[in-house]
Amino acid sequence: MRKFWVVLSQSYMTRLKSKSFLITTALFMGFILLAGQLDVIFSWFEGDDETQVVAVQDETDQTFDELELFIEESGAPFELEAFDEGLEEGQSAVLDEEYEGFLMIRPDDESYFVANYYTDQLINQSVQDQLMNALQQVRTLWATEAAGIDQEILEEIYEPVMFETVPIESDDGTTARSQEELSVARGLVYVMLFVLYFAVITYGNMIAMDIANEKSSRVMEILISSSSPVGQMFAKIIGIGLLGLTQIGLFILVGFYTIESQQDELVGGFFEVFGFQDVPVSTYVYAVVFFLLGYFLYATLSAMLGSLVSRMEEVNQLMMPVILLIVAAFMLSMFGINLPESSVITITSFIPFFSPLVMFLRVGLLEVPIWEIGLSIGILILSIGILAVIGARVYRGGVLMYGKGTSLKDFKRALTMSKKD
Amino acid sequence: MCMTLKIDQVTKRFGQFTAVDELSIEIPEKQIFGFLGSNGAGKTTTFRMILGLIDATEGNINWHGEPIDYSRTDQIGYLPEERGLYPKLKVKDQIIYLGRLRGMDKSSILSALNQWLERFNITEYLDKKVEELSKGNQQKIQFISAVIHEPKLLILDEPFSGLDPVNVELLKKAVIQLKEQGTTIVFSSHQMGTVEELCEYLCIMQKGKPIVHGSLKEVKRSFGKKNLIIHAEFDLKFLENESGVLGYREIPEGCVLQVESEDVSQTLLNVIQGKGFVRKFALEEPSLNDIFIEKVGESYA
Predict the structure, then answer these.
(1) Principal place where this protein is found (chain A) (predicted)?
(2) CATH number of A51-157
(3) Interface pTM (ipTM) of the complex?
């Protein structure tokens, strides 16, 4: 057991102190901090921008004032300016970048007015949209006035309908998830999906790399003559797992700080931003449980594969199927987040390599019977156990095996290498 | 003589291939035991089986009456044939890690490490990364990692290969000193000279089978054949056809004969009497090299 701790702390500490780890962690934390201050950063640049001006030639002579009023009300980021030098002049002024665009309003017998907007850029549609909305409001105003409808009546017509969804309470007192709860759970599922995805790819790869490194530098033979390979494998998995928790913990801390520091601008604290305060405690517990189980499953697989290669370059090749598996699980859950009740999701929530993500998604979004959760966790634990037994045997033989190929044959060779009989 | 490491009827097969075939050896305590054999003879596989890294297909290996498992690894030192250290780690951190894996604590590792570095005259490497060291110095560090915990049983797989003569001497001295301190040492080599110098007991393996094994004296005696060196000022070619002469090799001063037994030498002495001036007439024990070539060659044929 002592040696287990020696290996564990070694794989944790050497990685923790390594430059590459420190740099990537610092970069990532900087990135989070920066992302948190994005609005501040944007505002630095926005300040420099001149206010955009749209030139308006109003030939109806009565539209401009009301149009300007509506534009101001809508808070559009541009101003209007009256213009009377005609279409040609207006267009060339736009080309000279004096104006953002040129709006020509001509009277029309049937429809009050016809508007043409002249601009040299069609990518930014927001100006057109806002102008169109404002003009629509002007037209509605006139039309209702002409029909003799009072402004107050108009407001009444457009009053939004009162509509509320009320969850029905079932016999055992639980209700279906309310809309708020659902969006909250969805947020948590998203976070969890990304974290697990990130963890499996990063730390799984780290484990495989570590083992391949020990093999290619041939230090492995000394290591396994000092302490049992199986113990080493698990010490490594847990050591790197702790490293992962440290790193993710740091990221969350920075994220937490970023949001807290902006509390004045945003409503509520960290948990409210993500809407986490309404989530039942059990969901958090499941998040941790499924995260750990998922990590162990993929880490064991990675360790097993890492022990089969003899050179670092082969790691990526062999890790490919693992990455494909987690990508498939990720895609499934992305699909499932909107359709959590589909049968594909229900079935895959029991399949080991998908269940950590998919079952958690179901638990977060639906009312899943406890036996189903239990069954899924049971299958997961069982498959981790099976994988650990196979992995340990492959590892034991694989670490002594050097060759150039990476194939199923190697897998069998590693198993015979470690055979007892 | 106390037999402590007992290899009993051990066979190891990898699929169809038999790496070690019914090997039975007893390795005495506190002695140096040499394993000889050409490449692929099964030496490394035997070592790995002794260490319990791989299991024998048949037979048992016992040390002090029990197979070696991970509860006793702290008493065992191992220098693998394929040298391996963490290239990116400093010598100090490296040895501390490997030492702790052998159950030592940090302070005793450091004091032992400093002693060894001083002994090998490489104290300046304490804080250097292994990849910055020359191959010979890496090998010294590797050797230190195998002996730092003062093992009772030390297994050295080709300890002297790739070292210059000065360093070979340095390492030999260290090995002899360890033996005097009571360590049982098993090592393999294809350098016959070193084996002859260091080992009281040895075993020559060929294709997984021990073809010669026992104490060095016994092996030489039971080999029977002797070398007869004659330096003379006349042609000795005719001796090749004398009865009892098995081999003839010309050297500038005369010839080296391999003779069936000691008695043949006396007959030959009579034969060359009066033929001319004889500078040297010496009967010698066969060298291990002769035995090795003959025995291994035989099994090739």
Answers:
(1) membrane
(2) 3.40.190.10
(3) 0.78
Same-domain status, B149 and B177? yes
Q: Does B235 map to a domain?
A: yes
B215 and B239 both lie in a single domain: no
CB contact under 8 A, B70 and A227: yes
Q: Mean pLDDT, chain A, as a whole number?
A: 81
Q: Per-residue pLDDT for A390 more than 80? A: yes
- Tell me how close the Cα of A17 comes to any Cα of chain B, in angstroms: 12
* Domain locations along chain A: 51-157, 178-417
Shortest Cα distance, chain B CAs vs residue A413, angstroms: 9
DSSP string, B139-152: HHHHHHHHHTT--S
- The residue segments making up the domain with residue B241 are 225-285
CA dihedral B50, B51, B57, B63 (to 10 degrees): 50
Q: Which residue of B has its CA nearest to A228?
A: B70
Which residue of B53, B76, B145 is in closest CB contact with A400?
A: B53
Between A and B, how many CB-CB pairs are < 8 A?
Answer: 68
* Least Cα separation, residue B289 to chain A (angstroms): 31
Rounded to 10°, the helix A370-398/A408-417 angle is: 80
Taking the model in full, what pTM does it have? Answer: 0.73
Check which CATH number belongs to the domain holding B112 and give it. Answer: 3.40.50.300
The tens digit of pLDDT for each residue in B22-45 reads 888 888 888 888 888 877 788 888
How far is residue A116's CA from residue A106's CA, in Å, rounded to a whole number?
8
CB contact under 8 A, A10 and B97: yes
CA distance B235 to B258: 17
The reply to whether B34 and B178 lie within a common domain is yes
Backbone angles phi, psi at B206, to 5 degrees: -145, 120
